[in-house]
Amino acid sequence: MRIIIVGAGLVGTQLSQSLIEEKHDVSLIESHEERARHASNRLDCLVVHDEGNSLSALAEAGIAKADALVCVTGSDEVNMLICGLASSRYPHLLKIARVRNDEYIRLNRSEERILGIDRFVHPDVEAARSVLNAIEHGAIGDILAFANTSYQLGSTDIAPGSAFDGLPLTHFRSLIPGESLVTLLERQGESILPSGVTVLGKGDRIHVLAKEKELHAVFACAGRSEEILRKIGIVGGGRVGALIAEGLLYPEQDRSRKAGLAAESSPRSAGKPKKGPSRFSFLKRLFPKRIRQVILIEQDYGLCKELAARFPEALILNEDISDESFVVEERITDLDLIVTATGHQELNIITALYLKSRGVRRAVALVSGAGYGTIARQLGVDVVIPMKSVVVDSIRSHLMGPGVKGIHRIGDGSIGIIELEIEKGAPVADKPITMFRLSAGGLLLLVNRGGNSFIPKGDYRFQVGDHIILIAKNGSEKEIEKLFGTPL
User: Fold this and answer.
1) Which tens digits make up the pLDDT trace of 36-80?
2) Strand ranges in 12-108 using DSSP code E only, listed in sequence order
3) How far apart are the first and last CA of the chain?
4) 346 and 272: one domain?
5) CA distance linking residue 23 with residue 126, whole number of Å
6) pTM here?
7) How many domains does one find in the chain?
8) Rounded distance, CA 43 to CA 40, Å?
9) DSSP 8-state code for residue 475
10) Are residues 294 and 431 in the same domain?
């Protein structure tokens, strides 16, 4: 594909790098001179130093022959304007805009598209979903849930002396009953697609596909016992923190019955009633049945007042989390879980580690990129959500064609989990599983057929309508396209 990206911030550069590695033709437009120079030195693609809303800049980037336009500048309005400008001349171009204002996304769900934009990506909602999914599973490791299936991909580190420490994979099923599959092993910075001769060891990070019951057994054998999370603290009452609180308190209830849940875009717009179910109704359980108390800690007094009106069931504390006396006086160390969701990733990591050292059982930290995520995990944070990586995965899912339902990078980013649906005319349709062979390495993990999910065996044959999940190394995109007929 030929893709134009407007905005060379962290998301824009990470997205560009990922697409370049997959052999896409990428052009990048950036108005800031220093960022444009940095991107030009770092990325093997055309970098145009100009305003994204300039027709001449879009023409120089090759929009006349492009397949997609992705706008990820720091302004919602600029992103939408550029997409609208491109739509007026190139209506068949796929247009994706990153926005943070929920009003734009709500309008886009109507029958009439806004400014011809095909997809909106909301970074705060994506991050909050990831946090809530981790909390739902006890925050004992990273959890990747797949739509319309009972299987999940769980990731956790192997503790010294645990049941998995020194275990050959050939003996894995003796400990974990039911269907499960070790899909990836991370060891000393290297991502390994394991085989039967692989031996697990302390410090390894494993990614296991299994149903929820078996996944809890996997975490237990890795040395991570599950605990009930009844008292949860959220540090940071901005957009992400407020969305997490909303998901915890009102996961499936009608927000029109909750006076404070009127405004969805930010805490500062609360008070205008909106009808409709919660955006977090994807959760399987009602959190209030498991949680006794939610505490929001925010330093901004005005924001605390608005949070208190929006979340009457929560305890709102107007305090500085870095104040040790506050931590002791308010008994913050009695928390079962702390979620650090401020706008400062270093503070999030330090706060999570400090509170864990004082007795908080579990910690979830939001960070900017995958690099900080690796550091935070190694230091002892239970779950780390790299916001930029989450957004990049969401954008790449939209770029991968109608048959692709999602893509998720795991490990060091060199491995991808791809969800796709077998469409009519795909080369693999009605063919055996032996057709799925990738030169760089890959594995068919899961099949959902007619609502039934199963790990495919040697007699499996691809069928039109099958929803499949596969794991593959970077660089396999052309082979996957050849097999499944899906443009990547």
Assistant:
1) 999 999 999 999 999 988 999 999 999 999 999 999 998 999 999
2) 25-30, 46-49, 68-71, 94-98
3) 7
4) yes
5) 26
6) 0.74
7) 4
8) 6
9) T
10) no
